[in-house]
Amino acid sequence: MSDFSGNGPIYGLMAEFDSAQELVAAAHKTHEAGYQKIDAYSPFPIEGLAEAIGFHSNRVPLVVLIGGLIGGISAYALQYWVAVITYPVNVGGRPYHSWPSFIIVTFELTILFAGLSSAIGMIVLNGLPMPYHPVFNVPEFAKASENKFFLIVFSSDPKYDANRTRSFLTELAPRMVAEVPS
Amino acid sequence: MSMDEHKTKSAGTNVGAAAGAEVCPSKRKQFDLATVKDQIEQTTGPEYWRSLEELAGSAEFQEMLHREFPKGASEWLDDFSRRGFLKTMGASLALAGLTGCTRLPITEIVPYVRQPENVVPGRPMFYATAFTLGGYASPILVESHLFRPTKIEGNPEHPASLGGTDVYAQASLLDLYDPDRAQNITYMGDVRSWNAFMEAVRGPMSVQKSIAGSGVRILTQTVSSPTLAAQIRSYLEANPQAKWHVWEPINRDNVYEGAKMAFGEVVETRYDLSKADVIVSLDADFLYAGFPGSARYTRDFAARRNPDGNMNRLYVIESTPSSTGMKADHRWPVKASEIDSFARALVSAVAGNAGGLASAEEQKFVSVIAKDLLAHKGSSVVIAGDHQPPAVHALAHAVNNALGNVGQTVFHTEPVDANPVNRNQSLHSLVEDMRAGKVDLLLILGGNPAYDAPAELEFASALKSNAVNLKVFLGTHRNETAELCHWHVPEAHYLESWSDARAYDGTVSIVQPLIEPLYGGKSAHEIITIIAGQSGFAGHDLIQSYWQKQHSGADFDAFWRKSLHDGWVEGTTYAPKNVALKASSLPASQSAPGTGYELNFRRDPSIYDGRFANNGWLQELPKPLTKLTWDNPIMIGPAMAERLKLNFKDVADLEFNGKKVKGPVWIQAGHPDNSITVFLGYGRTRAGRVGSGTGFDVYPLRTSQAPWFADGAKLPPTGDIYQLASTQGYQTMETPDGGKRPLVQERSLEEYKKEPNFAKEGEPPQELTLYKPFDYSKETYSWGMAIDLNACVGCNNCIVACQSENNIAVVGKEQTLKGRHMHWLRVDAYYNGPRENPKGFFQPVPCMQCEDAPCELVCPVQATIHSSEGLNDMVYNRCVGTRYCSNNCPYKVRRFNFLLFQDWETPQFKLMRNPDVTVRSRGVMEKCTYCVQRISEKRIDAERADSTIKEGDLQTACQQSCPANAIVFGNLNDPNSQVNKWKQQPRNYSLLGELNTKPRTTYLAEVRNPNPELEDKSEESKA
Amino acid sequence: MATNTQIPVADRRVPVIAPGHTFSTITEKISNIVLSRPISLGWILGFLIVFSMMNMLMMALGYLFIKGTGIWGINIPIGWGFAIVNFVWWIGIGHAGTLISAILCLLRQTWRNSINRFAEAMTLFAVACAGIFPLAHTGRPWLAYWLFPYPNTMQYWPNFRSPLVWDVFAVSTYFTISLVFWFVGLIPDLASLRDRTENIWVQRIYGLLAMGWRGSARHWHRYETAYLLLAGLATPLVLSVHTVVSFDFAVGIVPGWHTTIFPPYFVAGAIYSGFAMVLCLAIPIRAIYGLKDFITERHLENAAKVMLATGLIVAYGYGMEAFMGWYSGSQFDSFLLWNRLHGPYRLLYMALLGCNIFIPQVLWLKKFRVSTGWLWLISFVVLVGMWLERFIIVVVSLSRDFLTSSWGQYYPTKWDWMTFAGTIGMFLTAMWLFVRILPMISIFELRTLLPESQVHEAAEVKQ
Question: Please, what are the domains in chain A?
């Protein structure tokens, strides 16, 4: 199997499944069995999988909200400061504070900041970019981006025990169970 | 140049050239001028001249001009190097000395307002002098920045100007700096020195002296300079056999012959239109430049167009449509040859016996005029056009006499022309002598006879032949005549030399130079002294000594100073003289007018007789009616065009007297039927880089038998097309869908009396806006302009004045065709009514300086914004050139530098430009600024004096130059300002008022004063 | 989008994916185009053509910067010509991409999964082409950055009242957000490519771009939230962008510009031309790269329907313009209408009506919606028509404004045409490269379209 097995401490135990259903079911069981530090990998987003491994909190929307507010407020502030305070000029007889004209830029910058913060927020919260990760040491894991589904129990989990966890995972009838060297 | 240097100059009267040398290092070069020029000639010169020749004649050049464009035409790289013709690569030829420093006259000249001693750099000084055209002087003031003439204004204190000028005077500044001017004395094309020239003539002259100068012929243009006349006459006295000939293509032979016919002697006739209630023009375009006294006539005429005052009435019976005709209350288009019968009918009608005219309509027209004239005995005028035959002038004199206008509105004086011989006969006899080999030395002082002499004389060939041993030509340019003479002496521009000249009323102005001759040119005065063997006299001394003789009294210095200062010599105005109308003055009725196509020759509204062909400002000046630039058309009436199946821009062969020229057709509304008009002055081959090859030459068709019009022309189409660059493609306020746009508001006098506010219809109330308007009332100034459409006669003066004041670029024909001309101020011409005889309207359109300016709103970089004084400022440095402002300008007064239109290289132009105005570069939007540089100057002055700008202190360039006083500019916050008074008039309206852009420039609607008896008759007359 | 993707059993329509596909077949089929498919001679020839067209653009722009905008046909009164026409046209085309990826995503239109990727790419390239013109059309392009508000020694700022400044913000925001949206969508597929390639260097490049994506459930969870939010943001954005572009005209006072109907009418027109461009690209690509299984007749037909609908909105726009011309009672507006029908540009206006209104009506017939040949032809006609529309609005309106004295004519020069053709070359060049170096169809989103991707039945069974 893995050429890496045995080298160094173990990062976790990984089980490979054939279908999304199996993965979700297995994830449920593992979580119910009391394992906290687990994760699942799939080639596409699977509804309910995150809940299955007990992941609920998601702060992306908050980041976006803050980004949007910053964008909008700073945009209007800039225009007001420019047109009314620092350099007021009579442009075509329009009032210095031509608020209807200022709406457009305000709107655009709101979108811009919110959009950027959603993407960057997601990437940062996901801890990306992370070119190296122990799971990649498992050769089969290459299929995680194609058609195979994986469940991992991290060795850092309090309930983790090399043998018992392995046997528990084997009960879930995976295609195989592999140690993930770190 | 530093002050003390300058003092030495202005103080020293004739310290001589040596002192002049010290003015600045680069000026020293002038002494080995010849060598410098030689080098230049050797290196770049020859190619340059050759290229110039090829340029004029070459097929490519013609092809380039004739190229059908724009017709989805594609642009490849070379198309833009074309502008090279205008952006004269003069740098290669110009003297290094030119760029370096200014050239202060050595001899003393007297400033108009201030002594030169207290010259302050950056503060312009004004000098009074005079510009001469066809012998008639236009008194002018010249603005001079550190002795560089930069702008020409009318002389407000001179009766012949009262501040107004004409387009030729305005544009003559550009001629001074024309890099194509002859820059050195040449013999057979090779550069020679002044001394060499004097050597060359000394011998022959002494020989001639022994034979009483029998071989000497002097050919001048019209001379009104007392000094020059005296010089020539004294020479002729010394050499009785020598002869003085005069030639001028646009001459007044008919006027003088007519006077002879009427009074038995030659008199000058001038008019006082301020007293004239009824004016009848017999083909006289007396409101346009080139007609002697036009500036003053326009002023007086316009003053009487105020509908609230005692408004005059103008009848015009004319052949070629003119701006005068378009201003008429009643206009009657007829062939030039039919004017005669109208005049006769008028004479008899005034005498009380009707008849004489073919159609009843015409008869009615004339009798109504006669009635009107008789109702205004002593307060009416009949003016005959210069190109009408002597008979018509005699008849006009008869009418004026019968009406008792003489002494009231019509005055006869001595002729302004110092030698009023018949031009045609004079030139004829000269050519005979030349061919007969009687001429040993021919001295041509100015002009261009080789180009503009009557065709049958074949003057050019006579000049070319070796019949004449020594041919000397004095001229500003190396033109067609210079080519055929042995010696060519560069003529000093009038701003470079001393002279004197008479205005239309005889008043003499001393012509004082503002700058040393840029190319060491000489004046006619100096040449005559050489011929007379009395060399060494500078122009200044000649003029001064002449007037010394004239002036009795010890206080000559004071007299001299005053004359220079005021711009005219006290007491030289011709007093009206009483001349008795000969009993037999009514000339015998001449043969009935022909029935074929009549061919008319007219002076060109832009380049006159061709002398201004190399003047870019005038070439690109839209002609008053056609708005054509850079070309002269074959002008015909609409009906004739239909019969001949000719359309705009079709090229036709114009055949006359067996000669033939090709030209593009222009269909002119209001042009009489069966009549063709062509304009002189185009088709020059040796004009220079600007003028050579523009238009087509009609002089080959012009003979001394038919100098102005004759019957029997043919106009077969050729099938070719020639692009004419008109700056206004669409000349009516009626849109093709049948709508009519109220751009120029017009009513008759009665209607106006009934409903004075007619023009304000459809203007929304100013409060009609979402925003609280800016409040300008707190400011000291709030600038505004009003233009009286009633006064405006479409003379184009404002356009040239604006171009000169604001350093506006000339873009050339190709760019004009594309619609990229740069004039900040344009004069829109509209026609209304039957195309055979429409009403004409002129509307000067500068920037409206809207308070709620659409252009400002859309500029992304705030490059155009409002000043606290209500100006719509254009910040060139900030402009990135999106052209959004122009798109959003409803008046389309913004102009864009699509390419690098300005000439940044030629040093001459650097001297010429107004230093107070930015020279715009490529990619920048520009537009009328209300002459903001003038406002700032005056504001600074006022602030330094701790006061404010007073009414009258400040004029925009267009306003100042306007001979009609049609433009008023001033402070809207000053309740007593003229502009406020005008804006309070009921006639005042905003152009496109319904857009509520709140223009600061408004118009006074036009009111005509038609004769009720002719109303609605003349409407569909001949329609 | 992925969050809810059951395909109704009762759906008789052509499925969005041909039957018989599995996760791995999808992955292979799409990724192999990038990883293993040999470069064909046709591809090279085509690339040479479009690349040389792109270089023509470079030449035209180079000469433009040397000489100035005078090399174009523009003049006074017609200060805007091809540059602005092309700008509006390209921006409009971009809109379809965003619409497909964002709006249809929000509307749960799962069929968009197989066309959104290259539609978004199309958006980016189109906006890039559009972006050239606002810069190039200025008289002094080297100063165009003055349109951005940045602290400067002059203490001077842009005019936030000017639609051109709004443009700057709208277009740059639009480009940025589209780029982000596109890249976020690419991440999981980049990971797939990373894991599938044999070539170590290719692997490193894709690996770098994939940022170590490993499909963790936690990541997927945040990913979907972010993607959904981006879609939610992009939707109002795409609507705003062409609205702002239409303000360039609507804010002006020129007859033919100054009308309140422009924003909706421009947006509809944008989507109209955008879908036309999608079809023009999709039809040949699916044939060449054998993607008929993923881009099925269903997609083409839906796109055709969208075109039909937006086309009708555009037609309504024309109708309203004409109506207002008469109803407003303003002689300027009524003359505008007259001039379009009888003026010197009447033929263009007729062509416009034909291309945008009459010809597309055949799309009512299924026959035309499903026949790729016809569909491609009609889409092309619509593209031409929409370009003409912008020409009519920009040039014809300017050529006949208030003062009859300043009416003008516009004649495009060779440089105008070169610049236009050049941007088309640039657009196609980008497309040419895109189809060979990135998965032109979203792999992971296609996976979610397979029944196997559904877990509910299983879950229910468990209870």
Answer: 10-57+133-181 (3.30.70), 60-125 (no CATH)
